[in-house]
Amino acid sequence: MTIDYNTLTVPQATQLQKEMKDKIVLSPFTGKINYVAGTDISFDKFSTHVYAGITVLSFPDLKPVAYSLIRKEVHFPYVPGYLAFREVPALLDAWEQLELKPDVVVLDGHGIAHPRRMGIASHFGVLINRPTLGCAKKKLYGIYEEPAENAGAWSVLYDKQQQPIGSVLRTKNKIKPVFVSPGHLTDIADSRQIVEQCITKYRLPEPTRLTHNFVNQFRLGALEAGFHRL
DNA sequence: GCGACAG
DNA sequence: ATCTTGTCGC
Fold it and tell me: Per UniProt, where does Mg(2+) bind (predicted)?
């Protein structure tokens, strides 16, 4: 599958999402996790470049073992529901130069918890054909009831037809919950359990949190582009 | 027409 | 996402 992300229009992007939707595989996550990865994007306010990063952590101890950083020019604007078309190109480059491939990737955004069930986690997962899941800080689509205020509490995120599309998970006591949904090659329950196992002392899972730190240092010039082993 | 709206 | 300091609460 070859996608020209540079001259794509939103209507064409919508059509692509509808076509890609049928390629998503939602199955229980089987096998052992030795490595989990996180992804993130950062950019300067009025720049046409984005800074992308992927961090690989050992599992279940969650220690960073390697990371990939890359800067790339982007043309697609940020439009709610089309985040993948803006961030995936850079993430694919970072993925290709990642010498150590993880067993599952945590994306900063949604998976199937999307108007057309094609959030960035599903989009990226289908393209790399690997297990992925989305963990977002805010809801994009769906209906839910607030989970209890204790860490570990969660509720189901439903679409307009009352079909489950993800989980609203409280990762810390009395702190705003995160929105977890499967991307590709995993399901709702397993994607939630994986995120729970990636929580230490912060609201966001370690893969996402550490990658955000690396990418920001990269954007500020404190780290170099490329693949790095720790 | 109004409200919602990942990063 | 990014622009930005201190401040309130557990």
Answer: 40, 108
